[in-house]
Amino acid sequence: MITVNNVSLQYGDRKLFEEVNIKFTPGNCYGLIGANGAGKSTFLKILSGEIDPQKGDVHMSPGERLAVLKQDHFEYEEFDVLTTVIMGHTRLYQITQEKDAIYMKSEFTEEDGMKAAELEGEFAELNGWEAESDAAILLQGLGIKENLHSKKMAELTGSEKVKVLLAQALFGKPDVLLLDEPTNHLDLQAIHWLEEFLINFENTVIVVSHDRHFLNNVCTHIADLDYGKIQIYVGNYDFWYESSQFAQTMMQDANKKKEEKIKDLQAFIQRFSANASKSRQATSRKKLLDKITLDDIKPSSRRYPWVAFTPEREIGNDLLQVEGLTKTIDGVKVLDNISFIMNKGDKIALVGHHEVAKTTLFKILAGEMEPDSGTYKWGITTSQSYFPKDNSNYFEGNDENLVNWLRQFSPNEQSESFLRGFLGRMLFSGDEVMKKVNVLSGGEKVRCMLSKLMLSGSNILLLDEPTNHLDLESIQALNNGLMAFKGSMLFASHDHQFIQTIANRVIDIREDGTIFDKQITYDEYLDMKISV
């Protein structure tokens, strides 16, 4: 168990945390959520002892061990992979080093013998004899093959290092596990394995993630960081989101009697439990949900941007025909004779590890890059808007304020009051609309680009990683907006739930530049991949 007592932290005039009191108990996985900049990663650093609060303290039960997913990918360059994982258990690694130092002595004294015996006893208690095999099992689960286990960390790729550091955090069954964005840079199989590991993990887990599907699968509770306070709610992310919307409706319906509201709550929980039954944690979570009362359900103070794409023109049947597109970049063939037809109503997810290939296809279809060979043709009833992965050309060196920047993309309505109102719905309020666009954060720039797309009135959207840099609230709003979109789209994203709830067709650009193309949901596609 880890207990937080009256923790407060302030940077200048900004209060990150104010008298936070909270308990994280064994057997539960807590998803720590909050807007970008709210202090989620800072709170994990307070829990780990890396940062001291200005007031209050963090207490762990005596003898318990805490493990943290390290963020410095270059910290262990000189160590081999297996050793790096075992170093996750500091005391066990320390004992190993002390033992080795004693046994290496040319003259072995009686005192050395007693010390070695003492260390051997503690080593056995900590399962030291199984350490290497336990570390190897974690590595293999995450996709680090055995031939890499003896290599130096410096020899590994960036994504391999991430997996090793994750294995390090999981090693030795820590009592409290702190994970900051653990699914970043993981492939599908590794994420699936990690979900299974955490679902079966019996101790305390506190995780920060922008991956709603991951939070839904592993979390028993949501810890909501808002306005400097942290409130714990039973259930996963979807339950937190849906119940806060439900609570808002209940508050607005002042005429309803309490008994009727309780019936509505019971029906809501029953409906949600049925929907969540696919989750492997559904049984234990359902027991917690069944105990919820009206007082436990509270409306969120979160603000969601307003995202809605309204096509100005009805789309015809002929949308896009791609024939034999081929492109080589820096000597590597990233697209090889690609052909497909986009049909009315298609919401196509571009998936796969080949990031350059996906971005290249978007650029060609948006008219920003020429193919080496092949053709593409848009239908005469179509109008396209493109959201690039790299939006720097729209902002770097631009001294315009937000209102003037957006005005150039709003041919039908140029008035300041309209533009201010539009930006307000995208969470730019008051004087924020006079900010220079070249100083905006990553998330703010994405909200500007989405505003540009909404004003375009296009009936076809090309979206290259639109969820990058967004907080959970903005991702949820964009997700809802694209589900409701009446046009067609081609999009790429790493957000599982985003793809699953929007796409009705999947195109996987393979490493050799060819494609897999099928009318299929994302979950069906993943089942095929994981079974292979």
Structure description:
A hairpin with a 2-residue loop joins strand 1 (2-11) and strand 2. The mean pLDDT is 89. It is built from 18 helices and 18 strands. The two termini are 40 Å apart. The chain is globular and about 90 Å long. Helix content is 38%, strand content 21%. By secondary structure, it is of the alpha/beta class. The protein has helices at residues 40-48, 81-86, 90-103, 110-125, 131-141, 158-170, 188-199, 212-218, 237-252, 258-275, 282-290, 355-365, 402-407, 416-425, 442-456, 472-484, 496-502, 522-531; strands at 2-11, 14-24, 29-33, 55-60, 66-68, 176-180, 204-208, 221-226, 229-234, 320-329, 332-342, 347-351, 373-378, 384-387, 460-464, 488-492, 505-509, 515-518. A 6-stranded mixed beta sheet has the order 5-6-7-3-8-9, sandwiched between helices. Strands 14-15-16-12-17-18 form a 6-stranded mixed beta sheet, sandwiched between helices. Helix 9 (237-252) runs antiparallel to helix 10 (258-275). The longest helix is centred in the middle third of the chain and has 18 residues, at 258-275.
